[in-house]
User: Which sequence fits this backbone?
């Protein structure tokens, strides 16, 4: 068989203040057939590399297409989306015949003119390859699962974990299903169950951790090929926004429906326990000050991983006002501050206006006097897996006795080396505050005695009932409605 692989990944916050354009996609790639070589430090290259290795193991021809990945932001410019989409499809058309097509997508990409970019790509690919070729898609769990996606693909596999450390495994799972289907060893059929919920579901804590175990146990049943939970992306307003269960069975539509309904009801029945309930800033700081060990505070609402600007300094301001010492805070997206400090040089002390630059979600800027302690050009940090995450030129500032990191490439804070790579010693810190909603857990849990997700101001608010949806088709969802499925 000839396997064609490509990918186009971004998560669109339709409430974000600016669009996603070529600049966003250029911070990591894009990759024109060389993601497996030039993009080995990015998740796109890692997944493409796994597919390439598996294809060669099984004696198939591997054709590597276009891969691009942008940090979450507002909807993608229509011209940019169409250029990248059409480039992928034209390459697929040139490489025909292709018996298997694998896409690494996100599932929550919205362009200015399309609410379902992934469904659009899959449907157009199906029109090219015909009904007999096997099309598979690997999606982020924060996706909008749509009827168009289900109709166009033979198999859709969702990353199970949040933090998303299992995407290489799920990529291999997708390959195995589609490859077996191509050899007529299985016949994947999919069923989608709508939980009629909007929520936020980290998988490292209960009850979601137990629900993931239950999904994996269901995959051990005869005839079940894959069980996935599409958490949905609450801050993307589309007709299909919401939480859904997707099951793939081998030729048995009733089995797929039965398992999807079972898992969907199990998630739904725990809906109250799954709601995020985070302390406010004052409460979180008070808890951190009483704790004798190392505390990590997560600035959840200003997380660029969900499309937020990452320049709201409300938590930093409160920590400074509380006189917190032995503390570090990062990472603020503020290219202007980085440029000024890099020019001033290490050792310079100067007045700065940091944060608050992008719009209402950015909050108010803060005027400080800072000392430049370190400068790193093209800084990076460890990502969720083996990949490196670029941060661009970055600076270490000392402000009021606290160590603060500012960066020029917008990203969430994944790993301690975002700090230590600039020279900040974390071993002596009692409080580490960072901009992330949950991915920080993977790499910061080993150095922390307590992790506190904080209800901060910003673009990613957790009051899901109050989100001003205009396009979402089902407005009667939990928690806006107490029991939309009528299960009591």
Assistant:
């Amino acid at each position: 068989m000839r396997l064609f692989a490509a990918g186009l990944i971004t998560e669109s916050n339709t409430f974000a203040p600016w669009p996603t354009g070529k600049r966003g996609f250029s911070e990591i790639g894009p990759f024109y057939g060389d993601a497996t070589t030039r993009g080995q430090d990015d998740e796109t290259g890692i997944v493409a590399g796994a597919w390439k290795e598996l294809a060669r193991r099984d004696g198939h021809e591997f054709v590597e297409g276009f891969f691009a990945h942008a940090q979450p932001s507002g909807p993608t410019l229509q011209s940019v989306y169409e250029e990248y989409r059409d480039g992928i499809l034209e390459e697929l058309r040139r490489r025909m015949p292709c018996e298997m097509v694998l896409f690494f997508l996100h599932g929550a990409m919205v362009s200015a003119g399309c609410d379902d970019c992934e469904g659009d790509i899959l449907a157009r690919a199906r029109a090219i390859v015909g009904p007999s070729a096997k099309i598979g898609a690997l999606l982020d769990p924060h996706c909008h699962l749509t009827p168009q996606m289900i109709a166009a693909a033979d198999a859709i596999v969702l990353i199970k974990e949040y933090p998303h450390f299992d995407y290489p495994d799920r990529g291999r799972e997708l390959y195995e299903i589609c490859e077996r289907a191509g050899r007529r060893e299985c016949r994947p059929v999919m069923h989608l169950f709508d939980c009629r919920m909007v929520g936020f579901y980290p998988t490292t804590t209960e009850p979601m951790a137990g629900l993931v175990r239950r999904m994996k146990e269901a995959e051990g049943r005869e005839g079940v090929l894959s069980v996935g939970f599409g958490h949905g992306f609450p801050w993307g307003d589309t007709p299909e926004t919401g939480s859904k269960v997707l099951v793939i069975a081998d030729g048995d539509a009733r089995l797929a429906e039965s398992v999807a309904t079972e898992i969907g009801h199990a998630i739904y029945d725990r809906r109250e326990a799954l709601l995020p309930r985070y302390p406010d800033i004052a409460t979180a700081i008070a808890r951190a000050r009483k704790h004798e060990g190392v505390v990590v505070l997560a600035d959840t609402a200003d997380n660029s991983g969900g499309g937020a600007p990452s320049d709201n300094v409300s938590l930093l301001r409160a920590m400074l006002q509380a006189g917190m010492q032995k503390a570090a805070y990062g990472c603020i997206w503020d290219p202007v501050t980085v440029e000024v400090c890099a020019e001033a040089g290490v050792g310079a002390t100067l007045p700065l206006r940091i944060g608050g630059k992008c719009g209402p979600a950015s909050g108010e800027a803060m005027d400080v006097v800072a000392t430049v302690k370190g400068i790193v050009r093209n800084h990076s940090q460890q990502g969720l897996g083996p990949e490196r995450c670029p941060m661009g030129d970055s600076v270490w500032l000392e402000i009021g006795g606290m160590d603060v990191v500012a960066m020029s490439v917008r990203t969430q804070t994944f790993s301690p080396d975002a700090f230590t790579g600039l020279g900040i010693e974390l071993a002596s810190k009692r409080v580490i505050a960072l901009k992330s909603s949950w991915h920080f857990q993977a790499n910061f849990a080993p150095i922390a005695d307590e992790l506190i997700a904080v209800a901060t101001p910003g673009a990613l608010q957790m009051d899901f009932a109050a989100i001003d949806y205009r396009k979402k088709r089902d407005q009667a969802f939990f928690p806006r409605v107490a029991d939309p499925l009528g299960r009591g």
